[in-house]
Amino acid sequence: MTKFSQEIEVSGHLIDSSILTKIFDKIMDLHGEFQVEEINIGKKKKDPSYARLLVTGKNQKHLDEILETIHREGAVSKIQKGILLKKSPKDMVMPDDFYSTTNNHTQVFHNEKWIQVENMMMDKCIVIKDNRAFCVPIRDVKKGDEIIVGEGGIKITPPERPREGVNVFEFMGSSSSSERPTQHIAKKVAEDIYKTKKSEGKIIIVGGPAIVHTGAADAVADLIKLGFIDGVLAGNALAVHDIEYATLGTSLGMNVHDATLAYRGHRNHMETINAVFRAGSIANMVKTKKLTRGIMYQCVKNKIPFVLAGSIRDDGPLPDVITDVAEAQREYKKMLKDANMVIMISTMLHSIATGNMLPANVKVIVVDINQPTVTKLMDRGTWQALGIVTDVGAFLPMVVQQIKKQKR
Amino acid sequence: MTKFSQEIEVSGHLIDSSILTKIFDKIMDLHGEFQVEEINIGKKKKDPSYARLLVTGKNQKHLDEILETIHREGAVSKIQKGILLKKSPKDMVMPDDFYSTTNNHTQVFHNEKWIQVENMMMDKCIVIKDNRAFCVPIRDVKKGDEIIVGEGGIKITPPERPREGVNVFEFMGSSSSSERPTQHIAKKVAEDIYKTKKSEGKIIIVGGPAIVHTGAADAVADLIKLGFIDGVLAGNALAVHDIEYATLGTSLGMNVHDATLAYRGHRNHMETINAVFRAGSIANMVKTKKLTRGIMYQCVKNKIPFVLAGSIRDDGPLPDVITDVAEAQREYKKMLKDANMVIMISTMLHSIATGNMLPANVKVIVVDINQPTVTKLMDRGTWQALGIVTDVGAFLPMVVQQIKKQKR
Amino acid sequence: MTKFSQEIEVSGHLIDSSILTKIFDKIMDLHGEFQVEEINIGKKKKDPSYARLLVTGKNQKHLDEILETIHREGAVSKIQKGILLKKSPKDMVMPDDFYSTTNNHTQVFHNEKWIQVENMMMDKCIVIKDNRAFCVPIRDVKKGDEIIVGEGGIKITPPERPREGVNVFEFMGSSSSSERPTQHIAKKVAEDIYKTKKSEGKIIIVGGPAIVHTGAADAVADLIKLGFIDGVLAGNALAVHDIEYATLGTSLGMNVHDATLAYRGHRNHMETINAVFRAGSIANMVKTKKLTRGIMYQCVKNKIPFVLAGSIRDDGPLPDVITDVAEAQREYKKMLKDANMVIMISTMLHSIATGNMLPANVKVIVVDINQPTVTKLMDRGTWQALGIVTDVGAFLPMVVQQIKKQKR
Amino acid sequence: MTKFSQEIEVSGHLIDSSILTKIFDKIMDLHGEFQVEEINIGKKKKDPSYARLLVTGKNQKHLDEILETIHREGAVSKIQKGILLKKSPKDMVMPDDFYSTTNNHTQVFHNEKWIQVENMMMDKCIVIKDNRAFCVPIRDVKKGDEIIVGEGGIKITPPERPREGVNVFEFMGSSSSSERPTQHIAKKVAEDIYKTKKSEGKIIIVGGPAIVHTGAADAVADLIKLGFIDGVLAGNALAVHDIEYATLGTSLGMNVHDATLAYRGHRNHMETINAVFRAGSIANMVKTKKLTRGIMYQCVKNKIPFVLAGSIRDDGPLPDVITDVAEAQREYKKMLKDANMVIMISTMLHSIATGNMLPANVKVIVVDINQPTVTKLMDRGTWQALGIVTDVGAFLPMVVQQIKKQKR
Predict the structure, then answer these.
(1) Does residue B296 have a pLDDT over 90?
(2) Given this model, what pLDDT does residue B173 score?
(3) A123, C398: Cβ pair inside 8 Å?
(4) Is residue D49 within 8 Å of residue D112, measured between CB atoms?
(5) Across the interface, which of A166, A263, A277 has its CB nearest the CB of B258?
(6) How far is B340 from chain D (nearest CA, A)?
(7) Which of B313, B317, B348 is nearest residue A352 as measured by Cβ atoms?
(8) C237-258 burial string, b = 16+ CB within 10 Å, else e?
(9) With contacts defined as CB-CB under 8 Å, which chain D residues touch B251?
(10) Which of B94, B100, B332 sits opposite A312 (nearest CB)?
(11) Shortest Cα distance from A124 to chain C (angstroms)?
């Protein structure tokens, strides 16, 4: 086994700049092994630390992969090899396997000496000339330039984190991004839901009315019908819009199937509220066959509990809505007890409310088109949340399609 | 063909307020026909215009559809029919086909007279009692109330567009924008507040907790102290954060004066809630000198009423919070009665709630750093709002500085 | 008083396209006076209307101000003066007081005839040559060109608003919104593309790299392969990311199919750029079978022209990129000539650039997850754009799926 | 000294879940001292680690502060004290100094045993009953409930980070927030600029045209005039808008001082471009006294170099603009050499371009009202950036005001 192992060293503020954390991370991400052979943590806060690890891969290629990856985080092989150089084949072309730079302070081991790379920038190559090393953009590469290839002989020093004292640079938290492959994420979320359910997990949906506006109500109703959802937490608006859509085909007067405005559609919102009041409750509407489809219908029919919390902006609100928020909180908490996964869709109000009630180990997925909504939830302490910035009307149907594939 | 035609009249600033445009639009959208039988455009800009159209539908139902639609834009049938009334079948239930209100000035033709609907709001019904007409929310409908059904006998007057003279309300384009000269807008808003107050206008603030996080609490407290504000509508969070800041100097544990985290600051939020519970109420905290500054303090001291509406995400909530949202809505409405100007700051929930309660002629200013928040409010019908996309923490102190200059 | 008055005429769909509204507005904004001397509203909806107004200013300068302003809204002086011309003093310099264009259909009165301005774009000047009128950008002005100065002799025809029939371009309200039924909108956009192509229309795509990050590259490549696209306008990043994805399966080092980070993936971006430099061009990569799929491949294979405009943030940039932006603008304009539909996807830079080059009657669809991007484009004058706030990675695959259904 | 020290222990995945990092951080943030007395890092990745530290404060109060803070991160005092309990004085009131919960797994040391707190949620108190511990919200507290006070006897277990294998929960990066005290941040940025300059640092501004639209051009011009800026990197638009504002008082035709539209203001943008072409260059406009104020003027007058990079969306572009982007990149890089601080204002294009050219140790401040702009820059590798989500038009004048105060 020894032949696929190598010793590496790393020094600096290993712990407080998270350097060791990142190196351990990378090794594990690549399914490698490591042993801590020696570690000296600076006894006082200004002392640098030192660690020596034995890194092991499944084979030489695997080990090389791991080593090259952790080199970028500051690890240095105990037996230092020099850099390899190759000539540029023509102007503005780099040799195969050229070393692509980071923007960190970088040294290269050349002629038995460490030399510092000048003019450091990211995504460039390194040219060696007269025992000096230069960071060079592709358009400035000249035929014959000596360019570093591979990852050997390179030492990167990650920047120390700024420390102590009030610093305006400390305001960084965690976030989410809209620049991810959406179809893949939909598949992953589908898998997560599927697996959680298969292992008898409890899944709760927290949803806002944009589910209906964006045409995703059928997807959510399907999820409930298929047995993946154990409870729905929402407000008055989701229920009203869902029932308007289920009974009249519109959402706030707009025909959801073709986005035209319905004749007298402005009435439909209030018409719906009136219909529920006339029936006495949503369950009664289902019993009397006035409500035969949609999210609320599937809840009633499949005996999936729901809690509708009142808010100051409610129209109506429906008789099913708990208008006292202290009481509504109690019901929310009951529903969330022992939940394994909570999916929050397009509602900042109910998402933050729910986030406050959850222990940190519950999986939370937040889906919203508005990035600040997702950020705010995380800022308020629900930092375990996975934020997905996407269009609910396009994303949820994808998730349901994927779940149906899993089922087969 | 004549039997499916009807003459309608419309008068007012038909052209410069786009009333005729909208009526023509609606007829064409519904595939109806029209002939302009008479049109008198005011010769000078202050003269009202008059038009008489013959509107034709494919059949009676089609014609009725068209007529009802254009009634909402201000058209009035030449031969005026009275309103139809139907009794409410039970408490909180409106009869079928009830007329659902807009937020425009509305008159109804009853007993051969036009009477003006009182307390106008959108998405409500109209109750007739003792020859008076009232706009009534569903929860306040009593069994036996006489409620208008259908669209006959109703005359709507769309608001005139404001004209001439530099007015902060003229910045409205297709939407709100962050690309405007901020200092100038702050000055204009300051002037607007100053003038509204000078002419004895009623100004209400609707605010969220970001006022405190962004360091604008002192500015708002100043506005109240200086006598510009007649009421504060908010939720639990604004009050809790304001009192945390006033008593402990922090907002969610962060020292507002230097953005550092306070020692044991995580407790301060709950510590504050406990302090109010111990005192029994915010007013008692002021009375016992536990609370000596800030927004809530200035309200209590200057006898400016406030309403705190509960929400599902509240911590506590404070004893002053109205946890029943239906009750809170009633108190919000009382506060908003006869308001001339409403300033909504960093709170989508309370802003939309308030927007729904306001007639279209009340000046509304919405300040938020998040453009979609501003857009959503307008999309929901509060189209008269002036949206200002800015950083509340920088903008409000500017406004207050400008108002103080005006005062001198 | 008469000497500071002038009669103007205006005709067309004065009321339903709000032309008269805008003219009245402008006069009042400038504190002018007007009298309606004659008005004929088309008796039926297809009949054009005509109005003659007497416009009065405080003095000649004031009157001129008013007249020039309302000329831009379609008003024409009764006694028509010809245009005034002045020679350009040197290359790339326009004479003082040159007329600056709108993007509306424009005619000029020259040698007692109305001639139509060719190649209409906004913010340019008009050059007269051989009794023809050309809209010319400043960089193309040659010394001695005859350029229109002042506002006399110019007639603008504001676009008629599109009317009747369900059209995806009717969704426009005060702005764009994320609260629309996404699946339906995808279907409508698909229909629009399909119909435009069926009637031999020219469709141009303007795209940014998020197409690749979000996993929508296959959808765009499909659209090209299926023959719906007549040209691609982009920058360096789209091409680099597309080729990285096509050759290495990653986008900035992230495997697009499962969102994991590729081993040594950080190199892939620069590796891709180097590969294109080595081949000499994208077309050469296709010829030598190094590039066998993706957006750029489909362009080359199907002989669909593309223009890649350089920008200051480019890595590389690729040899195919036009690094001189003035030259790139010329190529963009050539591509856009006679386009019937332009689809802008996730790129503010290229979308605004393209928007500036388009006449107001070209259909424009803007797709972006970030609402301010969409708003900014409209604010900059491309008000005819349909803004769709959605997740490109979910939306484009839906559109392509719908188009394939249409095809069958 | 020993009496103000205490030994603490911590165990678990200390390094890969960053627990040790956070404990070191907190001690240093509070200006405490520590010595690592013993550390055992798990030799293999599944082995837990253990550390024993000696923590030292300046006095007992200081030490207690530190201990209580690190308890929340999982540290446990070697000599374990039991919890302290106090009775609730009345319903819905907690005793002073009650322990306020986190949402992490929590145990309490009571009657010589560790018991686990049930129903864990954040921001609640803990009630002990029948040797069980419950997390209880304030409204459910009953008079006489035994509630934990102080921080002793409590052990928190921070959650392990999820590890290994593709997990959709890994997408979290760094970000910025709009919920910070703006005035304080303005002061900090001012201090940072002031200190950097005082120590002869090089400060570069990267700016977009929104500086002018939002009325912040005077602030930036002031900064240059006062000698704080060593170079300006921008595009065509900033220069054109600045000169339009400096010469005509408008920005895209809008009067910046009062936000009204200027008469014939639509021409001003092109008029400005023409004026620069006529003069031949910006420097010539200054020389011939056509340009006497603003950002570009101050650059020329104070010999502060600027580089204007062309882009595909430029009008003109001005003769000073480098239209070849490869050349512009070279000039940008020259300007950025040895910069100590780069302030990026309202321009995604130039900010990302500049970010790519900077080594990781340069201070970067990004100011934009649009959060995704800030996030994108960080996502692209400029992770050292401080993102400030604010309104440039309000923020920059504040910064300049603060700098002027520093100067005195």
Answers:
(1) yes
(2) 34
(3) no
(4) no
(5) A166
(6) 24
(7) B313
(8) bbbbbbbbbbbbebbbbbbbee
(9) 181
(10) B332
(11) 8
Write down all domains in chain D, each with its CATH number in brackets.
Answer: 1-78 (3.30.70.2690), 80-159 (2.40.420.10), 182-407 (3.40.50.10690)
Give D333 to chain A, closest Cα distance, Å: 9
One-letter amino acid at C30 equals L
Closest C-alpha among D101, D232, B44 to residue C24? B44
For B29, the token pair is 């959208």
Distances (CA, A) of A196 to A306, A358, B354, D166: 20, 17, 41, 16
d(CA D343, CA D367): 8
Q: Are strands C5-12 and B363-368 parallel, antiparallel or unpaired?
A: unpaired
CB of A52 closer than 8 Å to CB of D43 = no
pTM for the model stands at 0.81
C390 with A389: Cβ contact below 8 A: no
Nearest-neighbour CA in chain B from A292: distance (Å): 20
Nearest CB to A277 within list B92, B124, B313:
B92
Predicted confidence pLDDT, tens digits, chain A (408 residues)? 456 998 988 887 776 667 887 788 788 778 888 887 887 776 665 667 888 889 999 998 899 888 888 888 888 887 778 899 999 998 988 898 889 888 888 999 999 999 999 988 888 899 999 999 999 988 889 999 999 998 888 888 876 654 333 233 322 233 345 557 788 889 889 999 999 999 999 999 999 999 998 999 999 999 999 999 999 999 999 999 999 999 999 988 888 877 777 777 777 888 899 899 989 999 999 999 999 999 999 999 999 999 999 999 998 899 999 999 999 999 999 999 899 999 999 998 999 899 888 887 788 899 988 777 777 776 666 656 778 888 999 899 999 999 998 766
Q: Residue by residue, what is the 3-state secondary structure of chain A?
A: CHHHEEEEEEEECCCCCCHHHHHHHHHHHCCCEEEEEEEECCCCCCCCEEEEEEEECCCHHHHHHHHHHHHCCCCEECCCCCCEEEECCECCECCCCECCCCCCEEEEEECCEEEEEECCCCCCEEEEECCEEEEECHHHCCCCCEEEECCCCEEEECCCCCCCCCCHHHCCEEECCCCCCHHHHHHHHHHHHHHHHHCCCCEEEEECCHHHHCCCHHHHHHHHHCCCCCEEEEEHHHHHHHHHHHHHCEECCEECCCCCECCCHHHHHHHHHHHHHHHCCHHHHHHCCCCCCCHHHHHHHCCCCEEEECCCCCCCCCCCCECEHHHHHHHHHHHHCCCCEEEEECCHHHHHHHHHHCCCCCEEEEEECCHHHHHHHHHCCCCCCEEEECCHHHHHHHHHHHHHHHHC
Q: Number of Cβ pairs closer than 8 Å across A and C?
A: 147
B270/D138 Cβ within 8 A: yes
Chains with at least 3 CB pairs less than 8 angstroms from chain D? A, B, C
What rounded mean pLDDT belongs to chain C?
85
CB A263 within 8 A of CB B30: yes
Strands B132-136 and B113-118: parallel
